[in-house]
Design goal:
The structure holds two protein chains of two kinds. By secondary structure, chain A is mainly alpha-helical. Chain A contains nine helices and no strands. In chain A, helix 1 packs antiparallel against helix 2, helix 2 packs across helix 3 and helix 7 packs across helix 8. Chain A is globular and about 55 Å long. The relative contact order of chain A is 0.10. Chain B has three domains: 51 residues, no CATH class; 33 residues; 164 residues, Hypothetical Protein Ychn, Chain: A. The longest helix of chain B is centred in the N-terminal third of the chain and has 27 residues. Chain B is an alpha/beta fold. The two termini of chain B are 38 Å apart. The chains are: A mainly alpha, B alpha/beta. The interface between A and B is large, with 52 and 47 residues.
Chain lengths: 181, 270
Amino acid sequence: MLDFFLRTREAQRALVEARARLYRVAYAWCRSPALADDLVQETLTKALKNSAQLRDPKARDAWLFTILANCYRDYFRRLRDMDDIDDVEISHESTPESESSSAQIVVLVRATVARLSVGQRQVVTLVDLEGFSYGEVAKILDVPIGTVMSRLCRARNAMKALLLPEFQKNPAMVRDIRRIK
Amino acid sequence: MNNKEQHFSDEFLNAFVDDQLATEEKGRVYLEIGRDETLNRQVCELRRLHDLVQLAYREPPAPPARATSGLTSRHARLRFGVAASVLLTFGIVLGSQIRMPAPAPAPSLTAVPASATQKVANTAPPAKSAAKVEIANPVVARNEIPDNTTSKVLIHLARDDADQLSQALDDIESLLEHYRETRQSARVEVVVNGKGLELVRTDTSAFAGRIQRLLRNYGNLTFAACQNTIDRLAREQGVSVRLLPGVITIDSGMAEITRRQNQGWTYLQV
């Protein structure tokens, strides 16, 4: 009986932790707090509904992020049916202007990530934020592992090309990065 | 990529930075990094990009307030149920006076075997007389979930006392051996700066052979030298530092320590 209570508490703690992590990645993908929250909500609803599918608890994280990736894909599929894809940007709340009071570097890096293609953005965030292996990312996004590697490589090359000139223009920012790190 | 000695593809270097390579391949890159300055810079840039992405999303904006939905009410009921269960459990335990076992500490904080000479210390400065390894408070960033499968230990060497260094290398070896014997996945990074740099310089190191042997035997061990210290030696003393093969450079020792602590690494100072 005690085991059951402890398991329940553990499950809730895991859910709360997973929620924050799913939200962070969803926000990096769609750049809108409201949309990211909706995606996480939908992800957790589906996860609770289909929890019986999860055989191996160790694979829970990858499973949750697979659901999130599917929700994100479905969202854009629905959106294409209804709206012009160009309108999507307008609904994003987090723009450099609205975050002018935030740290310059954070704004700059987020803006750079936002300029990547969706596929590249997903790979970079799953690897850098969540520390998934390339194999896990390939499963989550349902693409070959070679695609993960080439997307990641192109994404980082693009980020280097976009960020380094900014740092050269503003050397004080480099000092700030060192201080922050 | 235009360097003649460069023969690693961009994909391969990314895989190296993301720790996706086999031990043997990683060792090959480490050896090459020690010889090739361009390659070293490329790896540093990739690591910096990785860190910048983490920094940028450490604190995403809070989601807007949401009206109670089906899920949240279920969530609230679950929370209520768990709270009630905890209370009930507490009552049962009190009633029967049974002592519950303490919950196990988080795996990332048990990275170091109890046998090592350590003490939790975030107050007193390191003792000079003995090569005690002291654990400063390991810091875990708020939104970062520690990797439960890998113990990550950063060891900081900033002194050149031969006895202390010898003792520290003993400790490092026994730590790595402990992880190997217990089949635990672990990463150990030794950051050297200040006077500690002498340990990894070809012209001053009293332990060159031993460090080479450690790097050969343990693929999960890294020696990282502070570029700021190297630059300072060149500027102030005109010393052109040559590092032992396999030792990598990092932009700043202090920055690396802070960065690793933010990533949930356990920090040990010698």
